[in-house]
Amino acid sequence: MICRLVLLSWALTLSFCIGIAHAESLNETVPAMTRQEFGGLTQEQLAQFFKGYKSSFVLLDTKTGHYLRYNPQLCDMQLSPCSTFKIFNSLVGLETGVLKNENHPFTWDGTKYDITSWNRDHTLQSAVTNSVVWYFQHVASLVGEERMKKFIEEAHYGNQDISGGITKFWLGSTLKISANEQVMLLKGLVDDELPFSKRSMAIVRGLIRLKETDTGTLYGKTGSDMVKGKWILGWFVGYVVKPGRTFVFATNIQAADGAWGKKARELTEKLLTESGLL
Fold first, then answer.
1. How deeply is 32 buried, as exposed, middle or buried, from its count of CB atoms within 10 A (0-12, 13-18, 19+)?
2. Which DSSP state fits 117?
3. What is the pTM of this model?
4. Which of 82, 109, 246, 255 is most exposed, with the fewest beta carbons within 10 Å of its own?
5. C-alpha torsion sign, points 180, 185, 188, 193
6. Any catalytic annotation for residue 80?
């Protein structure tokens, strides 16, 4: 989903560092993930994955509570969530009854979009898969500002600011979230600890299931921002489920062009695969 972002400086830093304990207290420390826990990859090898991008990456092992953070200062930086907000929007839609289940249909109004897959009727599942903006704008409109604000605040979603308008506050507008906060939100989804019913959370977990390998199952959602025809921001957030282990992650990349969700997913999958997690 397209959103807005002011480009920042191009300096890149890298370190394994201490993570966060919960979204409300980003300075509370927990153990850092060791190199051995992350497939033996060195800092120099990690840097190569994101070469050419201003980026951040957060990984949490939910079993040990250990974190890995690449570019820790950027991991704290709140950015527009773009299409990653579809995860939360789906939860709210299901919880309020605006959406009945993953097959809930909305009819396309005939507006022509540049993305061909948007130009048809959609269900919740197909709207997530194809990242259909109009579908989720309709969901947010039916939910309404009062109920949306309530859930945003209860879940401590980013800066909790939806003043930019009910159909666009997550589209480069007022709502912002950091990579650290994305990870804590997804950990809540995995652990059934968000302020939603277990049914709603189970449905949404199913919506973002992407693929299965011999090593693990990948869940996730991309998000992108384009300004003046240039892709300047890409998100990929999600988690990997392995036997007895779950690893939650959030990646964002920024550039003058070429930074979008598809690229963020490509880099993240390569990183997870080479570390032995996927």
1. middle
2. G
3. 0.89
4. 109
5. positive
6. no
CATH code, domain with 242: 3.40.710.10
Q: Are 162 and 145 in contact (CB under 8 A)?
A: yes
Task: State which amino acid sits at residue 132.
Answer: V
Q: What's the count of helices (H) and strands (E) in the chain, helices before strands?
A: 9, 8
pLDDT, mean of each 10-residue run, the chain (278 residues): 37 35 39 72 81 95 92 94 98 98 98 97 98 98 98 98 98 96 98 98 98 96 95 98 96 97 98 93
Structural domain boundaries enclosing 127:
36-274
Give the other-Cβ count within 10 Å of 210's Cβ.
14
Amino acid present at 136: F
Structure tokens at 18: 């201490």
- Domain-located, residue 10: no
Using alpha carbons only, give the angle 72, 156, 38 rounded to the nearest 5 degrees: 35
55 near 236, Cβ under 8 Å?
no
> Among 55, 80, 83, 200, which one carries the catalytic annotation?
83
- Give the 3-state secondary structure of 55-84: EEEEEEECCCCEEEEECHHHHCCCECCHHH
